[in-house]
Amino acid sequence: MAAKSMTLLWGSGSCPCWRAMIALEEKNLQGYNHKLLSFDKMEHKSQQVLDINPRGQLPTFKHGDTVVNESYAICLYLESHFKSQGNQLIPDGPEEQALMYQRMFEGLTFYEKLGSVIYYDWYVPEGERHDSALKRNKDGLVVELGLWEGYLSKGSGSFLAGKSFSLADVVVFPTVAFLFRFGLSAGRYPKLEEYYALLKDRPSIKASWPPHWLEGPEEELLLKDI
Amino acid sequence: MAAKSMTLLWGSGSCPCWRAMIALEEKNLQGYNHKLLSFDKMEHKSQQVLDINPRGQLPTFKHGDTVVNESYAICLYLESHFKSQGNQLIPDGPEEQALMYQRMFEGLTFYEKLGSVIYYDWYVPEGERHDSALKRNKDGLVVELGLWEGYLSKGSGSFLAGKSFSLADVVVFPTVAFLFRFGLSAGRYPKLEEYYALLKDRPSIKASWPPHWLEGPEEELLLKDI
């Protein structure tokens, strides 16, 4: 079985890792080797990771001798390599496909805007922080949320690229889950909440849910007023 | 001809626009409608753009009624839709394909690290700038340049994903061209210089060269000491 020749090094509560894990589940690649590493203990900078991934980042992924570490690259590689296995994640129709790619890459901006708020103190050293910058990042996230709320209300299906679950959902769902984990108001963003509720119990997503989230909420609700 | 039903709104000297234009050339889609807009005059926020692209960004691209604006999405869409037209941009072999996707997405980090230095004053309001932050960004770019210099010396071909030109080159070449435009030392980065020299006269790249670059160097050589 192909899954036996795969190894994923990952961290709990990382959107990029989660994307890779959802894709592996969707392509019926359960049974791949995997190892949970700790960001807190800096294990993503360990030799084990650096041997495969010079960036010292998670996910780190190997299929046989083939290395693919970037989460979007893992998704596209798996779909291409296991096209007829599990769920088809890139729609055939050119219009749906165009929409899927469009949303998939807008998803990078969505994730970046989320990170610029919830990871602000993590990315910006203390002496360089400015309330004005954090405020601008929050305003940017609000505009971004408005776009996605609009996409979901005007869309022609429940998923991001129409009537079927696709790679757009694989890569964007973790961002949406993070938003609610960090306290986003379901009342203010009803379409995003609906989307979250629709997908959170999907088998691929449930099976890959960040384990430390199951232990309870610990995060500060940084987004409750957004 | 398909190109006649395509419209690209673009700006000169934008890496994302350039990516789309190289892909269009490689797929033999010359003759597409296009309009050069001015970032200085804020034309990327004009109604003409906003009607197609709510983000008010360039490139903005339409094929018939199908909208695809994100540069990576345009590249993947064109390759999928015109697979057998022009040059094949995604290799068939799984290993080469994996490497291509890997480099393609690392290319986003490369571009971001470049931008964090050359656009620092543009992105960060005056009262929020810190020498320590710009220094860190420069250090990050140096590390990043080391990675790519290494990829090019260890690679099994002249291109980023091996022996053939691929989407990885389409999306990363503009970043490399920007590096040298902003004064990167060819002596310190010989492999990148070699790669730049190999590709700069390729027809797809020459045909889409940023027009205002042809008028002469105006940029400050912000990268000359990197």
TrEMBL record, chains A, B:
GO terms for biological process: glutathione metabolic process. Residues 93-221 form the GST C-terminal domain. CDD domains: GST_C_family, GST_N_family. One of its GO terms (molecular function) is glutathione transferase activity. It holds the Pfam family GST_C_3. It comes from the Eukaryota. Residues 4-86 form the GST N-terminal domain. GO terms for cellular component: cytoplasm. Belongs to the GST superfamily. This is Glutathione S-transferase rho. It comes from Oryzias latipes (Japanese rice fish). The gene is LOC101168100.
